[in-house]
Structures are given as C-alpha cells and as structure tokens.
Amino acid sequence: MTETVTYQNWSQISGIFPILDETKGARSVLEWAYRSYPEEQIVYASSFGAEAIVLIDLIQQVKPDAHIVFLDTGLHFPETYEVIDKMEARFPILRIERKQPKISLDEQSAEYGSALWKRDPNQCCHIRKVIPLKETLTAKQAWISGLRREQSPTRANTEFLNKDEKFENIKICPLIHWTWDEVWSYIKERDLPYNTLHDHQYPSIGCFPCTQPVGDDGDSRAGRWTGSGKTECGLHTR
Ligand code: SF4
C-alpha cells in the first residue's frame, strides 16, 4: 500500500500521478485514493453538477460502494434533487448521504433574520455548507472534490492532491485537467443522468436564491452570487 498522505506528513509528497491516460489522470488518482485510504477515511463531497456526474461514474468503477455526501442546504432546485434520485437508481450500491445543517431554515430566519443569503451570504454558506462539511470531515484524512482548473481563476492552481488548511486534511481533485467540453462528451458517451438546468444556461448550479442562468459569453461560475463579489461558498477557500 502506498503511504497515506496526511495533513501531518504532507511535506513528503510530490507530484506522483501521470496525466496521459484517457481520463487525464482521474482514474489513476481515484485508484490511488481508494487504495491508500481506508473507506471510513475518505469521502466525496458532491454538488451533483456536471463534473460530479463524471466523477461519480469514475468513482463507482473504482469503489462501487463509495461514500458520497451531498450538502443539502434545503435550498436546492428541484432538478438537483431529481438528478440525485436518478444517480441513486443508476448506482444503487453507492452510499449517498444527504447531509443537512444543524438548524432548519425557519430556525435560521428566527436567529439571523429572513433571507440571510441576501444580506450575508458568507454567513449563510457557513451555516448551511461549511459547518456540515466540517462535521462530515471530522477525523477523515481525505476528501474528494470535482474542481477543474479552467472553472475560474481561483481554481487555476488546483493540484491532484492539495493540503486543505481549512479542514486539516487532504483534498483530492481528480478532474483538474478536464475541460467543460470533455465533461459533456463523457456524460453523453456514458448516457448518464444530469441536472436538466444545464440545458437552460446554468453551467454551475448551487442553491436557487444564489444561482442564475448566464449568457453564452459568461464564465461558467458567473451565475453564482451574481453582483455580490462572492465567488466561492467557502468550502474551497482558507
Ligand atoms: S449558496 Fe446561497 S442559499 Fe446556499 S448556503 Fe450559500 S448563501 Fe445560503
């Protein structure tokens, strides 16, 4: 077994994965990850967007009963819940967990005021996404994410293995070299379910109050928190 990369021994690791396979290294990375970490030590945190569909399909080829967590803020589009149901039906052995925040939307409104996402989206994301993921990642050595380098300037330097200072573990990103066109070619070739909002100019899909369709010339994440200056929910920032 390859020595497990941990937050503590991170300094020992260097670039170890080839990228010249048919999946641009993604399958090699996943095979390494599930070989290296015990199953209770690794989880894929999935948004169930287009990249997630590719990643789930690749993961189930390597680890059919992998643990996948969806951060269910209670504010997702119906189409997002539909695609989760479809993926569960397609891959029934996968363990897909819908992780909810400790406080309901009503409790959030009572404590912070209504529509917190309009006044303080960072606080809202912290309550409904960051804390639940932190709870999930407690005592886990690694998590998987579907980040791609071309998605945004803030993701351009992502590596296959990343030291995650926020969650104090290793973040594994198998799809860093994939383009948007390659994601869709894979989905079509494999005839995989996908969020139908992608057919209506929603390249990146989060909670409905914070996601808008974008024009053809917009970058893929331009529809997220439009006009607020916010570009990330906080899971991928220090
Ligand atoms: S994306 Fe918007 S609604 Fe969802 S948790 Fe973040 S601020 Fe709240």
Automatic annotation (TrEMBL):
Keywords, sorted A to Z: Cytoplasm, Iron, Iron-sulfur, Metal-binding, Oxidoreductase
Reactions accelerated catalytically: [thioredoxin]-disulfide + sulfite + AMP + 2 H(+) = adenosine 5'-phosphosulfate + [thioredoxin]-dithiol
Catalytic residues identified in the record: C233 (nucleophile)
Cofactor, how bound (note): Binds 1 [4Fe-4S] cluster per subunit.
GO cellular component labels: cytoplasm
Keyword 4Fe-4S: no
Major place of residence: cytoplasm
SUPFAM superfamilies assigned: Adenine nucleotide alpha hydrolases-like
Pathway terms, separated by semicolons: Sulfur metabolism; hydrogen sulfide biosynthesis; sulfite from sulfate
Family note: Belongs to the PAPS reductase family. CysH subfamily.
Name recorded for this polypeptide: Adenosine 5'-phosphosulfate reductase
